[in-house]
Each structure stands twice: as structure tokens, then as C-alpha cells.
Design brief:
The chain contains 4 helices and 72 strands. Helix content is 4%, strand content 46%. With 1012 residues, the protein is mainly beta.
Length: 1012
Amino acid sequence: MPLNLSHHFALASAAVSAILFSFPVQAQIAGDGTLGTQVNGNLTAPCTGICAITNGTTRGSNLFHSFRQFSLPNGDVAAFITDPAIQNVIVRVTGVGQPFISNINGTIATFDPAFNLAPRNFFLLNPNGIVFGPNAGFFVGGSFLASTAERMLFQNGTVFDTRDQTVAPLLTVSVPIGLQFGQTPGEIQSRMRIGAGFNSSFTDIALVGGNVTLDKSTILVPGRGVELAGVGENGTVGLQLNGNRLSLSFASDTPRWDISLTNGSIVSAGTTEGNGEVVMTGRNITLSSSSVFTGILAGIDNAATNQAGDIAIDATGSLQLTQGSNIANLVDGNAIGQGGNVRISATNIRVFDTSTIQASTFGNGNAGNVRVTSNTIAMDNGEIGSQVFSTGKGQGGDVTVQAGSITLINGASISANTLGNGNAGNVQVTANTIALDGTTPAGASGIGNLVGSTGRGSGGNITIETDSLNVTNGAGISASTLGNGNAGNVRVVARTIALDGTASNGLSTGGISNQVIGPTSIGRGGDITIETGSLAMTNGARIAAGTLGNGDAGNVQINANTITLDGTTPSGQGTSITSQVEPRGIGRGGNITIQTDSLALANSAVVSAGTFGEGDGGNVRVTANTITLDGAALNGQGASGIGSQVGLTGIGSGGDVIVETGSLSVTNGAGISAGVFGRGNAGNLWVTAKTIVLDGTTSNGQFVSGIGSQVAPTGIGRGGNVNIQANSLTVMNGAVVSSSALGNGSAGNLDITAQNIQLDRGGITALAVSGDGANINLNVGKLLLMRRGSQISTTAGNDQFGGNGGNITINSPRGFIVGVKGENSDITANAFTGSGGRVNITTQGIYGLQFRPRLTEFSDITASSTFGVSGVVAINTLGIDPSRGLQPLPVSLVDPSNRIDQKCRVGSGFRRSSFTVTGRGGLPENPLDPLQSGEGVASWVEVGTDNPQISSLTQNPKSKIQSPKFPALLIEADSLIVDKDGNIQLVASRAIAESISSWYLPTCASVEDRDR
């Protein structure tokens, strides 16, 4: 049904009336003699200036015209006179070749018989090509379509053909349903600057050609639709007409050609009432310093129910935006209404040079969603996003990006933010590979969700699913809040994740973060969840959840097969996984939970939860089959480790650290720790493992390997307890298990349960300088071995502060405690001015260590006080004491003949036995003394062979001699070993056993038994 467009034509009618009488004459329009078309009353004569076009062929509501050529120079007017019943004016150009390209730089208008502007849908078909000049204009009232198709299709197979005028298909025609292109579609070029409602009047506009180019062109269609389509050889395009609204449709196999917008071209369908749509369909679509826009504009027609139309771009080839180009669906400043969506599909997408694809709101209304689908997306300092700007009041839209590969460099971003009053949308990115790299002064490359400093709303969530994620050179993934609202969550699911390094400016560290950033921020930080096969972090990369404002930090949860953290930034900041209350932050730190098969930290890398502001730190829990912590970088600010702390500026309790693993290796100064440097209690440490090895220090000796809880000299608070459960614990080469309070507070206790504990130049120590010493409790299943100056000690006080020594309890009812007397390995519970602690030992046996009232150069067990009362040492040895029940040897000589068994007489039927005394062979005089080397020498004496029975045995070759049955050989033990199951065995050395067996002879009793 025709629309009443009188309000559009008030000014336009006057303009056209002036046009009819003012333009010079140029011959550019000529009929071809078919369909009865007359131009100024002539069928074929060319027309110049004002061309009144009449007659034609009418079928139903369709009016058909046919021209040999159809061009309008600047100022010319083609005035189509139509009956009131006409809805569609359909024009074809039948001339063939470049001379017959339509050059439209004048005005096309539709009138009724009284020369009033009449709203009609207008269709122009010229297969040769169409060029619109900067002064082209259209006063048609309805939709305007210009196409280089060869024919128009109607229902029932009816065709309106530009190439074969002999076909007479127009007997029964309804509305057009499609366009059919030829082998070589002509191009459409536009430099026109048209705006419906001020220098043109139409509803929708469609340019459908081969290649479609807009150069310095402006097409404004407020509240209506703009369609640009590039169609390839023999392609077919569907047409849908609903009154004076026009739309196109494309089959999936329709061949496409290119569309380009250059030199500041603008295509816009924005309006105060909404509904305007922009659709672009082609092969390669390029925007260079150009814009495509729709949305809600401010005006008296605004209403909250107004809905902006969408932007839809479909390219079978590439979509490229360069030189600040924009594709935007906006709710404008001061406007009221709901923003529309942006939908883009292309094989390849390039967004460069600050170009953007966005759906945002500056006004009072929600932003639309952005959805981008492509095989490859490459962005260089470009943006895909949705924002609520600072003047906006409404919800941000969601951003969904799906691609085979995504590359963002030099500050490029995919984001959903709120800077105004409203929640940000969500960001979902799905791709086979994602690479984020680099920064600019304006920011880092990345995927983000932000509540800005002026924002009043919650941030959206970020979800990333990919096969491979690489974040390098300061790029990042971030969900944060600087304003008044909670940050969103970050979830990353990937087969491999690599986070590497610092930006070239050294100011931005690549990684994944979720933070409450500004000191004026009010809101909770979001959680970070990572699920991956492999997580590799290097050169200062970080995964961080924190709060610098007023709100709790989010949690960090990582599930991975392997996790590796290595290296530092140029300034020495280690690679890290953290959740922290930052300085000036008020809130609780989040928890860190890591589950992995293998965790390796090296060169100052850390996993840490802490508080440097006002609030408790979060907990750290690590579950892994193997954990390796190693070393400090040369420029590192600390050693590698897992820990929690109350920082120097922190006020609050530190979180607990829980480590569960099969194998734990801590080397070269690395550690597991809980510390207090500010005001608050340290968290507790819980370490459970099958094997634990703590080994060494950093090369400069600044850090020692270990597991420990500490109250630093600046700290005010209680140290946390250290709890270790292991099958085997080895502490060596300066490493320690420790609990210390060097500041104002008490140290935590040490509780260790293990089958075997080996200290080799290692220590288990507790130190408190201003209070009572901490307790050390060791539950040892089989062996506690102390070598080369190892220490088990608890110490309290110094020359300025008092304090009673802590207690040491070693409970090994089925095991042994072994040291070496001269290696100065000590068990001490000492104090300075207070009472010494108590040492309680229960064991099967103690070897090499001895109670002494004061420390000596030997291996000691002490409980002393420098200026106070000594403590107590209680040793309960459950095994047999070798020194008990020893009888003094007689000093008087006895008659040997009285002590010889008569069974050992000469001629007892076997070779004579002998007994030789060689001295004590290194055995100590006292069982408590250590073994010493020594040699006994005795002269060998051969016993004569005067027994005839023995002679006969050797001389009779037929005599049958049976090998004697020797009794079990008893050899005195001279060594102690631990077998593979951890059992302790007393054995003889192999050399002694073999040498004894070589000369051992049976006893007289065994010979007698054989004779029986």
C-alpha cells in the first residue's frame, strides 16, 4: 500500500519545481522504441535537461520503461509521470557496452499526472554499469534499487530482460522476486551524497551490482534500510517487497563480487525512531577511512520502546577495515531507545589503524550485541566491542567472536565495557588459535571487560575457548572494575596456554587478570578459571586476581596437566600466579586453587596469595603429582616459591598454604612459605607428599631452600604452624624447615610426620626473638639421620628480649636416630634469658648423638639457657642397650687344656680345627663408642698330620668323601643400611663376609654330628 509521504515532500516539491525550469539542456536519455516509453513525447529521440517520461507498459501495479541509454548529467531531471495505482516503476537500459553505462549526476523523481511528487518504488537495471555522481538525487518516496543485473524475475517464471527485447513476458506480472545477472556483471560506483529527508526522498536504497564502490560517498537513509551487494557471474539475488520496504536474499552458492567504501564514505540508517538497517553482502568488503552506522539518534521522536535496526555484513572473502574505519550500531548521546545488533560473517577479517566494530550506547538505552564469525581474524590496533559510555544509561551488549584463528597486535582489543550507568556485556571468544601481542601508549592488546572509573554497574564475564592461546609482550586478558560495580569472571579453556613477557615499554606485563583497580573502586573482583592441558608462563607473565579498591579479590582456579612458570621481567618481577589485597585496597584476598599433574616454578616464579592492604589474604591450595620449585633469577626480586603473606603495608591475616603431591623438590633457594611483614597472623602451611627434597641456597646465599613460616622483623603477629607429612623428607645443603618470629610475635610450631627424615647440612629450626620458642614435633617411622652439621633446634629470645625455649619432641618408637659424633649435628632446645626447652625423645636407639649440658664440637642433645635455667632432656630408648649386662673379663690366665672340648681330639675323623685370636679388629671397647679402624695380626701355625686315618683318606682314591654340612655362618655386623622399603638392617660388609667364608671350618660338634 502506498505511503502518505506528504511530510517528506514539502520542501522536496519546491526544490524539484525549481529544477524543472532551471537546468541546461544535455541529451542523455533516449528510449529504445519498446514498451511504449516516451521521453518528452518521443519514443527514441534523446532528451536533455528536463525529461518527462510517460506511457510505458503497465501490468497491475507495475509500470515498465525501456531505454537505449539512461544518464543524467549534473542538473538534469528524469521525471516519471505515473498513475495513482502504480507502486513499482521498473526501468531497463538495453544498449550494450561502455557508452551505455548510466551516469547519474542529476535527479530521478516520480510524479502523479498533476506533477505532484508521488511515492513509488523505483528499479533501475543497466547491465553495463551505473555511476552516481556527487549531485545525484532521488525523489521517489519508496525504495530505490539500482542494479547491473540483466533481468528481473517475477513469479511463474516471468522475466523482464535487458538483453532480449523480443521476449514478451509482461502479460501477467505481479511483484518482482529476483534479479538475474549475466556472465560479466557491470560495476556500480557512487560518489553521491544523498540524505533521505533533505536532498532526497526514498525509504530503502539498494545498490546491487558486480563490484560496488563508494568513494567520498554519503548515503543517509534515516530509519530505513541500505543494502549494498556485489554479485558475481550468473548470480541470482532474491527480492522481497513489502509495501515500500525492500530487502534482498542470497543463496549460499551465489557467486559474490567486491564492495569497497573509501575516502570518508558514510552509510547510515540511524534515526530518532530506530528501525534503520544496513546490509552488505559481497566477496571482499573493504572500508578505508569510512563508516557504516545505524542506531538511535536524539530527537523528539525518541521513546524507550524504539528499536534500532541491525548491521549485517556477509563476505565470502575478506572484510577489511583500515584508517580509522567504523562499523557501529549506537544509541547516540541524549537519545532514548534500544541499540541494534552488529552481525558479521567473513572468511577473513582485518581490523587495522584504530578501526572499530562496535555496538554501544551513549544515551538512555541498552547497547546491542556484536557477533563476528570468520576463519581468520587479524587486528592491528583495532577494536571489536560493546560499551556503555560515560553518558550512557543502559546495559552493554554481548560480544561473541568465533574464528579459526584470532590475532591481536599493537593494542588491538575485543572487549565489553561500561563507563556509564549500566552493566557491561559478556565477551565470548571461540577459536582454534588465539594470539595476543604487544601494546601502544593507549593500552595493551587483549580481550577485556571493564567497569570504568565513571562506571556504575557490574562487569560482564569473559569466556575463551581455544586450542592454543598465546599472550606475549604485554598483551593480556582482563576483567576489572575501576568504578562502582563488581568485575566479571574470566574463564579460559584451552589445550595449550602460553603467557610470555613484558611489553617493550617495560610497563605492562602480559597475562590474565581480574582486579578491583582504582582506590575509589567499590566492588568485588571476579574469579579466574583456567582449564588447559599445558600452561606455560615465562618472563614475568602473570595470572592475577586482586583488589586495589574497596572490595574482595576474586579467586584463581587452574586445572592443567602441566604448569610451568619461569623467569622475570627486565625489572626483576617474577612470573606469577597471585591473588592479593594490594596497597590501599580494602577487602579479602581470593583463594588460589591449582590442580595439575606437574607444577614447575623456576627463576623467581611464584604462586602467592597475600594482603598488602587492609584485609585477610586468601588461601593457596596446590594438588599435583610432581612439584618442582627452583632458584631465583639473577635480577629477581625473590626466589621461586609457593606462599602466602601479610605484606609490609598489610593489615590482616595471611591465608593457609596447602600442598599435596607425590614428589616435592625445592632447590636453589626456592621455598614454600607463609609470612608476616606487616600487621597480622601468618597462615599455616600443610605439605603432604610421598617424597620431599629441600636442597641448597641461591648462588648469592640470600635465599635458602625450605618450607617455613616467618614473622619478619617488621611484622607484628603470630607465625603460622608448619605441618608436613611425608614418606621421605630430605633437607640438605643449607635448606631448612623453619618457623621464625623475628618481629613482634610468636613463631608457629613445626609438626613433621615421616617414615624417614634425612638432614645433611640441613635444619629443622624454630626461632623467636621476643617470645617463647616454638615447638618442634617429629614423628619418625623408621630413621632420623643427621649428617654434617645438621640442626634440629628451637630457640627463644636474645640479648634484648626474653622467652622460654620451645620443646622438641621426637617420637620414633620403632625407628632409630643416627648421627655422627664428630660432625656437630645437634638437637637443641635453647633460650637466652628464659628457661631452656624440653627435649623428649622416644626411639629404639640413638647413635652418634649424646646429651651434653652445653653445645660442643660433637653431635649434641641439649636444652640450655644462656642466662636462665637449663631445660630437660628426656630420652626413652626402647631397644636393647648394648652396654647393659656386660661382665668384666678375668685378668688371671687359665689353663687352656681345661677349656678344650675332648670332641676336638686328633683323629676325630676330619681335618683338624683351629682357633686363632687376631685382636678386636676395629670393634669399640664400649658399645657406645663409634667404630674405629684397627688391625690385629697373628702368626699362622700349621698343625701336624700324624694321624694315619687322615693319611688314608687322602691316599685312597676310591674312598667316597661327603662334603660336610656346615652350620649357619654367624658373622658380626659392622654396618647399618636402609633397604628400599625403609627398613633398617644391621649387616656385615661383603668383603668381611667373603674373607671369613674362605677360611671358615666346621666346629667339633658339627664334625661329630656328621660322624654319627
